[in-house]
User: Fold these one by one.
Assistant:
Number 1:
Amino acid sequence: MGRVGFGVAVGCAVLTCAIAAALVGKRARSRRRWWRAVEVVREFEEGCDTPVGRLRQVVDAMAVEMHAGLASDGGSKLKMLLTFVDALPDGNEEGIYYALDLGGTNFRVLRVQLGGKVSRILNHQVESQPVPQELMNGTSENLFDFIALTLKDFVERENDGFQQKKDDGRALGFTFSFPIRQISVSSGALIKWTKGFSIEDAVGQDVAHLLQEAITKRGLTMQVAVLVNDTVGTLALGHYYDQDTVAAVIIGTGTNACYVERVDAIIKCQGLYTNSGVMVVNMEWGNFWSSHLPRTSYDIALDDESPNPNDQGFEKMISGMYLGEIARTVLLRVAHESDIFGDATQNLSVPFSLSTPLMAAMHEDNSPDLSQVRGILEENLQMSDTSLKARKLIVRVCDIVTRRAARLVAAGIVGILKKIGRDGSGGGNSGKTKSRPRRTVIAIEGGLYVSYSIFREYLNEALVEILGEDVAQNVILRVSEDGSGNGAALLAAAYSSDR
């Protein structure tokens, strides 16, 4: 071999070694970046850990805050609002009743015919109507006149399916899912608007009175019999079918809970007259907070950047509005500290670009190659060509977020049971050292529990862990469909004079 040939051979060998070294170095860097991605997720998982001991601390904290909120106005993060509902429907109600449900940008009007113990709900009709944007920021007179006009049109179209003479002089239940200070079972002053409404002249006003004025103005003789929020309606519907129902939980886009409390346990309302000695309390539990809640840096950042920092802390860890957003911020951190998602991560930087329904769909993908995860990433986040191991890491993040939320909801539910002495510990209002487990039904409404099977499994599993099998088998979580509407109509029946 000549010098030239030898030189070429040596040069090729050197080049080959250099390429090999570069490839080895690239693989090593890739491995380091992958393990950094795994480490980010592992740190997040540790921060979200909810062992049963911690859950029991949350249970105790919930019960303590419930006591404090009942003892004094402003004594707790839990508002513990009195609803003045001291009678729940029991199945004996008969007749036709109406309900209005104003809970956001849509409102609904319902007509329900009740047939007593034998027939229960004979007929049911519901119509939904969007609230025009200009009415959401206008005057109270215009908003409630619009609602009354829609109600009148609905009443006048009562069809032959309802086995009773057409008559608008019936009791009306009004579901108003905005913060109010209840004055009586049929009246309450608006504290503030949420969900995009900003009608200044309605704040501080009795919203049931505003509605009644509009209804009367439109020539209807219908009377607003009850004013409730969606959680109370859910409890009413649950109790209608099963009188062991003592609480209700909404766990969907937002979250809240209410329960039946003994009046003698409500210090701030002593002296109020009730027929039954009990009253439904609206907890507004989304605002619950405790140092025992497993809060991470991602939760802190979400809260800081929200329109209501230092508010609704529990809701921001457990409700559908926020779970997808928490997962997104973790994945964005992974993208910043590794290259497992490639360069197509721009949409991960957009707040709320990963919704909770999309997160749930990825979490519940059972295909071998996680094809649904890939499709969601490509279509909604423009993240293409993700590897299978990257998709598995994404599913793991979804699992961590969901598991923590479901287990915290379970702890919140047990906190209610502890307060009313139904957790098997003998505490609560009973004053006994040990109580026999009683059949206890919790009405549940909301997409997280109803539609998200893994969330539901984690919640049920945590209930058994906290309560123990002997007590847990007596606690039934029962889905209550459309409690916010039907429940209001049932309460109108329970409080009507012609019951």
Note: The chain is about 45% helix and 15% strand.
Number 2:
Amino acid sequence: MNLLGIPYNQLTGSTPFTIFNISRIKVIAFTGNSLSGNLPNALCYGLPILKGLYLSINKLRGHMPTSSSSCCQHQILSLSENEFDGPIHSEIGRLSNLQLLYLGFNHFTGIIPQGIGNLVNLVELVMDKNYITGSVPISIFNISSLQILSLSTNNLSGFFPQEIGSLTKMHFLYLDENRFTGTY
């Protein structure tokens, strides 16, 4: 089975943990439902070839599973518009094949981990509308493939690094509604 998906329906209740044990699935898509509960901490152990996880626009809550770093085949991780809270774990930097990372419209707190710069294949990084603090890590500007960077509506502060000029493939940059200072 390559795809397990029932997007944009009226599914409710907890995410069925048994789907995380179907080893031949490449894509799980449950976007736009009313699924609730926490994701299992052992998110990818039973999914060795999972490339895409689409769980946006649900009612999932709790912390981002730390074991998501074991999803080494991941190319797309879409968790936007849920009720996730807590920090974005530094282990996210281990998802070396990740191309699209959507974490916007949640309740994430803390800083953007430096390890995010290890995602050298990342094309889109969306973390808008959270409660992320601190400065933008310089490591983000090492991701030469980055085309969309959306960090708007957070509590980011400090000077914005001049290294932003190294993102030559950038198409869209959203930084509004933060607390940046300085002269540009």
Note: Residues 3-180 form a domain with the Leucine-rich repeat, LRR (right-handed beta-alpha superhelix) fold (CATH 3.80.10.10).
Number 3:
Amino acid sequence: MWPSTWLPFLYPPPASVYVAAMSAVSLVSMANAGLAELRGNHMAYSKFWHVVAAGAGGDKQRRQGGGGGALLKSRDGMLVAYAPALVAAAASFAVPGAVEGARAQILSAALAVHFLKRVLEVLFVHRYSGSMPLDTAVTIATSYLLSTVTMIYAQHLSRGLPDPPVDLLYPGVVVFAVGIAGNFYHHYLLSTLRDGGGGGDKGYKIPRGGLFDLVTCPHYLFEITGFFGFAMIAQTVYALAVATGTAAYLAGRSCATRRWYESKFEEFPARIKALVPFVL
């Protein structure tokens, strides 16, 4: 029997081998990806693919994967990564019985808003100067698509199960809204730092404004906040696993980002943490 007295904020896990397996896979794989970031083994996108910090001795160029696969412009690659999850979240409303009840409808709507924001940022906010391997874009797209579909499916399976004693639905909406607003604001601040021309990494500057005066990656902090908003809205084991795995991955990536800035800028302030102000 599910220990409801231990976890009064979660639905009992459904009798689904698929959802149980995906919960474990999502948590472990994303935590491993976070450890890989800490070790300097970065996914093939953003500045870390093109420039890897090499300590005080300078930078070195490195292609991850080493293959000769097709390359996309970074903007196109990120659209490929985000669009399928957006379509899936929006399409869930057209699938009979997929989003029954207020909680399921709010979860699907929040997922759709999250990925719509990402697509709009790719089109109108972010600035890109590099490329992304097609296989990386497809890998990211598959991960987001599976997590979105599985989160909605796990919510569907929770119908008929005993409701959690602690209802976090509407607090979760507030947490999600804070996360998505804070993430957008700091993405906008980042976009204003890039030079208009040129390639490579020469357009990067030390971020300023917002929480950038306290941490290197406030946009990741707010993204984690948004994912825990999903978990609070859903109150399923799977949504919590995804949020926890996302936090682990972005924590590793934030530490790698801070190291990168330290290697690029001698004047980078030591007081600025990686992810959590005054803590991490």
Note: The CA atoms of residues 9 and 166 lie 5 Å apart.
Number 4:
Amino acid sequence: MAPKKVKSGSVSGVKKPKRITVETKKEIIAKHENGARVSDLAMQYNMAKLTTCTTLKNKEALKAADVAKGVTILMKQRPKLLDEVEKLLLVWINQKELAGDSVNETIICEKALHIHHDLLATPPSTSIASVEEFKASRGWFDKFRQRTRIHSVIRHGEAASSDKKAAEDFEKEFNKFVEDEGYVSHQVFNCDETGLFWKKMPKRTYITQEKKTLPDHKQMKDRLTLLLCANASGDCKIKPLLVYHSENPRVFKLNNMLKAKLLVMWRANSKAWVTRMIFMEWLTKVFAPAVREYLETNNLPLKCLLVMDNAPAHPPNLKEDLDLEYDFIKVKFLPPSTTPLIQRMDQNVIANFKKLYTKALFARCFQVTNDTDLNLGQYWKDHFNILHCISLIDKAWNEVSFRTLQSAWRKLWPDCEPERLRRF
């Protein structure tokens, strides 16, 4: 006879007792005071009679308790101020939900810190000493989410097959090439393009337990293309190329902005795509001068290797198209259908950049919407412009760490060991 299956969430087939929240216990007390019998209450709330009696025995303390939603037990060590923070935070989440705004973990934690700071600054505040270390950490957020039952929902508004054999063959060829040519990590660069929906609201938002979905909303899908480039040692990031659908946005004219002074190389076409002409401009006007200066400054041999995929914007005869002035640049193209496996920028670098961009964006949105009467949708639609976006792109790109950039090469170039440069 086969052994009995043990249900998930149980130990030795015994169900884990369900914790009853303080607000549910208050309901039980109120119904008992209105004449409900203990046995009926135990059945209604799926509790043991002894547990129900214990709840009624402690009714005075429970009725006097003023705790945040979802708290199951009364603890002397839980600061009263923290309960106030969570109650006000839940009210704020409800307001955002009704307004149709998106809120994620970062924004909720930022708001919690802001509420906590305001309560500390408003006398009289209680239990100040015990909550000075409140950091709105990931652990606190997880427990807050479990207590209040807020949950994440999706707002409704190319997986090419990879050639593993070609990737493995290229790895061997590449490693032999860099060894034979004597390249070090500081001289090997990689670039890749990525699309960025710089005003798109997130699909997921946290809402209260009572709501299952939110009304649909129109997504703002203003797209641009970025080309990011850095070396294997992670200490040389090249100025990004940004391609937009407008040559001269209105905000440039209003601010008398010179495109040459931007933190990115600005180019435009109707589809916001990188073309071969635009790529060659970036290569000769941004990449080559920056790499030359970097190598000369660090007393490195004037030679570099640029690794990239065979996208249509990358000229296949690039080496022949370059003038003698740029003969220190050599190019290696990745084989077709190998990008997800060995493309260095795809190895978490672009994902990390977009995460940092989103974090900086939401920090800015939180600050503005918290200090004004604007909601998130109004701010993004009417008050967040492409100049703000460029500033956040620069901030996010600068915050991509050496470790992230270096670790991305482990698959393609396992023997790559960046050495610390000595300044002369």
Note: The chain is about 45% helix and 10% strand.
